[in-house]
Specification:
The protein is an alpha/beta fold and 238 residues long. The protein has one domain: Rossmann fold (3-Layer(aba) Sandwich), CATH 3.40.50. It is 29% helix and 24% strand.
Amino acid sequence: MQPIILMTGGLEDTSRGFPQLHVYQNYGNCIMQNDGIPLVPGGNEVSSLEQLADLSQGLFLTGGEDVAPERYGQSDSGLCGKIDPWRDQLELALCQLFVQRKKPIMGICRGLQILNTYFGGTLIQDLEHDRGFVHPYHSVHDLTTAECSWLRKTFGAVLQVNSYHHQAIDCLGEGLIPVAFSHDGQIVEGIEHRELPILAVQWHPERMTGPDRYDMDGPDMAAYFSHFCEMCRERSLI
């Protein structure tokens, strides 16, 4: 049975005055290439999301806008990018529903940050301003994987990844384990949960795989998506 994977997107204004949903197609492609069925929710009402959480075998939190600082107990320092309150509400509600059901969750970039926020962690609002790290948008850098982690077993101790973020984890959320690091271990680039089927990375693996691969540096990241889809597939058999 093909697992149904709830895949989040954002809400943006249009020139006609009607808000529209948006999510890059390559996220869905990576799910479909691994025999999953992506499903994008069009509303954030809890009653509807509960039904979608029951229907789906997994949750995929995609990349996007910055998380509103008040969600992790801070005021906006003026260094954040665009905020999407609708999406914050949607994704935090979905995290709750999927954690309650102990169903798999995967996060990419913003997805990692929203998961850390959900579990009570905080974020660095701007890496260069707050920490002095030069971390250019659309750059390539090395990272180190944690010993005995799935990332280490699959991609090795050191690998190259892309970077499209100016924020990162500050205080780690409860129950989360860091499994990948950059800047000599000072930036958490990958997390898992101690008990729940949750994994997330700060880079963009969907741009490092497939026939229309965008970033050519680093390993093919197909295994990241096949691993998650297999987690969801196992859930569909329960």
